Amino acid sequence: MEIKEFAQDFHDNVKMAVEMGGEDFTHELASAILEYIEDNGEVNAPEICTFQKTRARVTAYDYNDEAESLDLFYLIKADNMLGKVNNSKIQQGFSFLKSFYNEAMNGTLLKTSDISKNDEIAEVARLVQSTKGNITQLRLYIITDGMTDPAAVPDPEEDADGDFVIEHNVWDIQRVFQQHNIRAGKEKVEIDFPTDYNTELQCLKMSDENEFVDAYMAIIPGITLAKIYKRYQQVLLEKNVRTFLQFKGKVNKGIRKTLREEPEMFFSYNNGISTTASEIELKEIEGVMYITRLYDWQIVNGGQTTASIAASLADREVDLRKVFVPMKVSVIRDTENADALVKAISTSANSQTAIKNSDFSANEPYLIDLENLSRREWVPNGNSKLVCKWYFERTRGQYLDQLAQLSGLSEKSFKMEYPKNQKITKTDIAKYETLWNMMPYNVCRGGEKNYSMFVADIKREKPVVTPVYFYNMIAKCILFNTIDSVVKSKKLGGYKANMNAYVMAAISFLSGKNLDLKFIWEHQRVQQEVVDKIEELIPLVWMHLTGGAGSGSQAANVGEWTKKPECWNRLKLKLGDLDKFDDSLMQDETNEDGSCLNTAQRDRIQEAESYSPEFWFRLANWAKARDLLTPIDRKAAFNFGTMRSRNRGMKSLKQAQYALKIMSRAQELGFE
Questions:
Q1: Buried b (16+ CB within 10 A) or exposed e, 51-87
Q2: What is the pTM of this model?
Q3: Contact residues for 485 (Cβ-Cβ < 8 A; gap 6+)
Q4: Are 237 and 298 in contact (CB under 8 A)?
Q5: What are 508-528's pLDDT values in tens digits?
Q6: Fewer CB within 10 Å: C terminus or N terminus of the chain?
Q7: Phi, then psi, of 154 in degrees rounded to 5
Q8: Is the sign of the CA dihedral 385, 367, 61, 115 positive or negative?
């Protein structure tokens, strides 16, 4: 695919997103470009918030407190397909972003009559102010669907007070196309050390006895490793089981400490990196061997080391010229079994240090089961001809990966079978489930934090993923999207994400978590009575979140207020005055196979749910103190207590029967 064809497809997809109920073209264009930057791993989770004054403008923002960086984005639309964006526009765009930052920081940004304290841009301005003294880099991004001149990008510079480094970046259609090709496997990571990085790596070759792998030991300059990572980002770590965790945790903080305080000791302190390649080019000078080029290079262990060094490129306290990193290179000779060998090398290398289960979350059976169901369950449409499915993205960029491998009729068929607006991710699922369990404050803490808590719940509760479970999940997604659409139509001026979270939790509360999700799945829409209830809830929730002390909120900082359980607890008191949903909108309780529960089965579930959290905790502690029941039963009793303390009901007849069996056995053993 040439860039012209890619650009046309790119614009067609943006237009399709607009036609299928998305935002306006500008919003969808920015979202599409940001998706590729996120996929590259360069940024965390940008939020679009378009704002424009005479001199201060911004399209999106992203604050990563762990990386100590604030990112601001400004979109420049090209005049025509692959149109050239002249250098003066690029410079002007950077000027707009700097003015936005400065005006937000000094408080002049919002001094205009048409901006209220509840506008989203006001929250962004407060966020910018909160970063004072907490960032080491301000990264400015120009994003555009046009072509740009690399010479237009200024060098990094320190701010006027020397508190942080200002970094300038441009993502144009050429850069997006490059990322597309990397994802499609059409652009491999090929490192030409002398040409691109003005260095050659002295190395030692291990013996030739291994018919599968050629192994080399080398030393790579830290600044070279950093520059390579800056170019390729996450693609360099595709075979690595982990992703970069920023400077969070003792290991990465220790790396940064060494880089800043003892860079010359980095080689001695650090275990280095383990890498693989499909080919290697060498040269020999006076009996000394040097690596000049590596093909399809991957870092399979040492991703944290690599990304930490790269993150220090703009750190004025680090002298990367003094940093050197031990490097092992395994060149795969057995091409037929290359993937298996790389996986084995990666697993073995990473087993030398502790890896949390969350590092492997993409390979959890729960997520694999959801993925499998999403590939085979067709969307009901009332006709004999099946049209499309919902696509669950188990690993980041999976949808783009699969799409990038296709062309022509195959590509069009894929887009029809899996429309982009029917793609859901792991963090989406975590959001829907958390809101349905009435914990909107966790969702308001951010997608990644909420996901980590969700994973912990999944590991503990181990839900069985059946087709009915999948249908209900998609129904919650449709409900959330409906709420988002209604909230958006009200043009409240900000806090849409917070409103969405609290309105959906309110719907769950008013329906006792028993809304007829089967109807939503079968009709791929929400009942009109539910839409009416959403309309009724919006003014109540909005006033609660932003309406001042009289409404029980902390409106001076809505973002922080909505992260507190107290915010939800106070809203529940107000929801108690509203009418609950009619029984006709309630879902018949079902067994795991989807069949309806009979009266006796429902009674058993109600009996199990009648016991308090304290009862289950007391039972678990009693059994543990006397070494009675099995360890599994004692753990289950404790989990039932935790579940009930979170207002969660029994998920199935099977679970209720197990709970009652534990209780009965405990009573036989003397528990009162």
A1: beeeebbbbbbbbbeebbbbbbbbbbebeeebeebee
A2: 0.60
A3: 21
A4: yes
A5: 999 988 899 989 998 999 999
A6: C
A7: -65, 160
A8: positive
